[in-house]
Amino acid sequence: xHMMRAIKQGQWAVLLWPYLLAIxxxxxxxxxxxxxxxxxxxxxxxxxxxxxxHAELIYRVSEESCSLFEEMFIPFxxxxxxxxxxxxxxxxxxxxxxxxxxxxxxxxxxxxxxxLMLVQSWIEPLVYLQTTLDRYDGVxxxxxxxxxxxxxxxxxxxxxxxVLIKKMLDEGMMxxxxxxxxxxxxxGQPEMLESVMRDYTLLSCFKKDAHKMEILLxxxxxxxxxxxxxx
Amino acid sequence: MNESVxxxxxxxxxxxxxxxxxSLQLNTMAAALTLLFFLYIAYTSTSALESASxxxxxxxxxxxxxxxxxxxxxxxxxxxxxxxxxxxKPGELRxxxxxxxxxxxxxxxxxxxxxxxxxxxxxxxxxxxxxxWTSYRVQLRSxxxxxxxxxxxxxxxxxxxxxxxxNLTWAPLNESLSGIYYDVMLxxxxxxxxxxxxxxxxxxYQVQYRSASSDLWQVVEPVTSTHRSLYGLETNVNHEVRxxxxxxxxxxxxxxSDSIFIHIPSKVSSFPVAALFLFGALCLVAILMLVIISxxxxxxxxxxxxxxxxxxRGIDSxxxxxxxxxxxxxxxxxxxxxxxxxxxxxxxxxxxDLDIEEQGDKLTDLDTDCLMHRSLSSNCTxxxxxxxxxxxxxxxxxxxxxxxxxxxSPFHPLIPDQTLSKEASCQTASEPxxxxxxxxxxxxxxxxxxxxxxxxxxxxxxxxGKVLLSPEEQTEVEKTTSKETERDVMAEKEKxxxxxxxxxxxxxxxxxxxxxxxxxxxxxxxxxxKSEPSLTGDSSPLPSPSPYHESDPTPVSPLPPAPVxxxxxxxxxxxxLLLTPxxxxxxxxxxxxxxxxxxxYLTPDLLGSITP
Lengths: 231, 612
Prior knowledge:
The complex is a heterodimer of chains A (231) and B (612).
Chain A: H1 2-24, H2 44-73, H3 76-79, H4 100-104, H5 108-135, H6 141-169, H7 192-222
Helix pairs in contact in A: 1-6, 2-6, 2-7, 5-6, 5-7
Chain B: H1 2-16, H2 19-56, E1 63-68, E2 75-80, E3 93-100, E4 110-111, E5 122-125, E6 135-142, E7 148-155, E8 166-175, E9 181-189, E10 203-211, E11 218-219, E12 227-234, E13 239-247, E14 260-262, H3 273-294, H4 296-303, H5 325-332, H6 340-343, H7 363-372, H8 382-386, H9 420-433, E15 457-461, E16 467-470, H10 474-477, H11 481-495, H12 515-521, E17 568-571, E18 577-579, H13 604-610
Helix pairs in contact in B: 7-9
């Protein structure tokens, strides 16, 4: 069922991606192919820069949200116990290397796909997070706004990465085959502490993954022209 | 016996002590005791504190001081052995870690891959043992792994603290015009360990600077570029600059770089601008002062224009200045001894219309003569001289400075347009008559030379016998009000029932009645003759110059309107009028010298004719 939904999303994205791009990514209409009244394209470099910007912002906001949540809801002794065995990150199954040397050896294609995977796998959990946050008492509005903003930006990031893939790799749109192994079985109303811990884990995992996305994209950018020129 | 007595004595000795001494001794003992007590407490407390402090001194277990990664590729963990001395030996403490990598099978605890050699109590994790975005759990255990001292958990990307930037240099950019401030451009390089080229880490730099004298570091906003400009540094001041960096998405800054010192000496300007400006300003001020002083008068004239002084043509303006009223009045024909109160409030315009050609041609002489000698009146037409009944009855000038000698100063209102001929005729006529003057008057010394006999009008006859001569208001009043004044005068006089020296008549007319009228009224008059001016110009002989002094208290009480004028014989020493006595010796008339104040009512041309 999730796959069906994902496929549907993908189809919509395929059909509407230029339009979505035009809206979500403000274009800098530079005519590469010569005088079109309406510029449907953006240069690859600019697109990559834009995508990286998105990723940076998302990471920063997610970090702030995580700290906010930590301050508000997590008692101090438990703060160190995140990422414990209890609630592993949902994206742990994604085949993304975690050391620099390994990452360095990843190809551009694989980098982009990894990023796309990450982005796509986080869209839904964030929506879920919003609903759960609303349930808590005394949630600051800033936290809610941030999470909302992040989920929106994540969608636009996904679109950007898709376009980038198309540009750089000349590939068509890939339907997401990555199953979303969500922990969100929606077990009704878990008790407060459990729910809080789960959300806390969610936020910290997302923060980590946002950082990962950012690094991967930066690697990709600096790797252009086969020369690392990001001094 | 002594012994037996002694105790008693001793007792008595005790009791014989005065009470205050006893109390004093008790007090001192108490004080000493309390003091001792406090000292004891203090000692015990301090000793207790010492012992307590010794015991409170924490016996800390070995603990981690921090795990830091400088490049997000490797990291190292450091710990502190604590207070237990026996653990300071190497190998006593061991570090174990476990790293949860997502799809790797769960691992066992592994020991530190490399205990640092250059530094004690440090474990270094190389790239092979470092994975980002994974959770690490590091523990500090005793050698036999029986005791767990400390544990930390982290992700490597969270513990990144980059090394300090290297190659910090500066170059001057600008200098201000005054040479006091300047700008510099700072440049540095990222730390070697951080892989910025690949984009693995993005760094953010923070510059701090301070002048050598202050302790406060100025913090500049972080930048991601490897250069930064500093503005507004002072010359001749030593500045210290340092820089540090952190990962763009990280939390902690790394170490500071080595400080560099910036010093730019200020230029010694060969041209002291300040001195030049000062000199210029002083010169300007000096020139201004010179201008002001040299042109002082003109400036004063411009700033404070002079007020035009009083000026009457023909009269020396000196006389018009303050304090010289006497001279002025003498010139203008008034007596300085006049009673000013009679004139000052009266606005009257007087035109002295004396057409005198000769110096000695004094009208008063003529008039007096004419008045005095009736017999000669045929020749002398004093009326013609000055008694023209002209409606433009102008007042006469008074006769200033009458000498104390009795003199006959006839007072007649001056009439304008007096023709000289009449005067002349009078003069000729009067001269022979002058010796025939009444003995009272003698030579009729007139007003002091230079003075002219003035004519005036009797305004009031007081009960005391004084005759008040009116200050001449005839000129304006002449046509209409002169008559009114006459009427008033008449009315006043009618009220008086006492002795009258003069009976004036002719209330209907002004002071100037025609001869005809005079003639009519004369029979009714107690005053027989009057010298009435004939305003109409008829030359008629003067009535007999015998002032009719009515001594009866019931005189012509229906005081018929009598002409105002009377014949004055002379003026005695007291400045009282001597009217020609008829029956009773007329009391001396005291006619105040109602000399008209010339004031400013003289037209210059008339004045010219007046001045001697």
